[in-house]
Every structure is written in C-alpha cells, then in structure tokens.
Write a structure and sequence with these properties.
Elements: E1 5-10, H1 13-23, E2 27-34, E3 37-43, E4 52-57, H2 63-72, E5 78-81, H3 85-94, E6 99-106, E7 109-115, E8 121-127
C-alpha cells in the first residue's frame, strides 16, 4: 500500500496554485473542472508520478473552524521534506514567505513552519 493522494484545504484554488508552484516549486499535475471548483493537484518535480497534493476548496462548513483551530494552535496541515531546511527557509523568506516557526533542530530532524497564504501552516523538514 502507498499514499497516492493527500490534500490541503485552500481558500482560493488560483492563489493556492500560484503559491504551491511559483513559490514552493511543485508542478501542476491535474486540473479538471468540477462545477465552481476544480480537481487541482500538484506534485514534486522530482517525482512527477509520485504522491499528488490536492488543493481542495475549503467550502465545507466543518473546514473553516478546523483550519482556524489548527492555525491558532500552530499545527501544520501538512509536512514536506526538503534537503536543507535552513537553505529552504532562506530561499522562501527572500520570496516573502512568512514563517511562524523558524528552523529548529529537534534531535535528528530540523523543521520550520510557514504560512501558505491559503489558510494553512505547512511544515518543512529534513533529517530523521
């Protein structure tokens, strides 16, 4: 068994697509119209046939309170592996990305947490 798809709930699919591709560096995999929304996924350019991330609209009534509670408590909605957290932190910060948690070493791993501009906190991690 493998993870095929994961998702983050976003408040604006167009804004999310720009952030996740232009800033984070993912590439668009699928874009299928579904009424007012789209089935919109991105993948790592290093693994184009790998796990897809669905940029899922947050219109369901349960989603906004859930997202608000996670952000309020500083809990990331997703975690992405990078080769070097400090280097990625510097690259993203230079692009104007806001971090809620600067890089910190926790034993064998280093993490940082950023705001994805779409209502989520996202963790970047390396090591372990």
């Amino acid at each position: 068994m493998r993870i095929h798809l994961s998702s983050v709930f976003v408040d604006d699919q167009d804004k999310a697509l720009r952030f996740y591709t232009d800033v984070l560096g993912f590439v668009k995999k699928n874009e299928v119209p579904l009424g007012a929304a789209r089935w919109l996924t991105v993948v790592s350019p290093e693994d184009p046939d790998g796990t897809e991330l669905l940029l899922e609209p947050d219109g369901h009534p349960a989603v906004k309170p859930y997202k608000t509670a996670l952000v309020r408590d500083g809990i990331p909605a997703a975690s992405f592996a990078v080769d070097d957290v400090t280097a990625e932190f510097e690259r993203l910060r230079a692009l104007g990305v806001r971090f809620t948690h600067d890089p910190v070493e926790m034993g064998p791993v280093t993490t940082a947490v950023l705001d994805d501009t779409c209502g989520n906190l996202i963790q970047i991690v390396h090591g372990g």
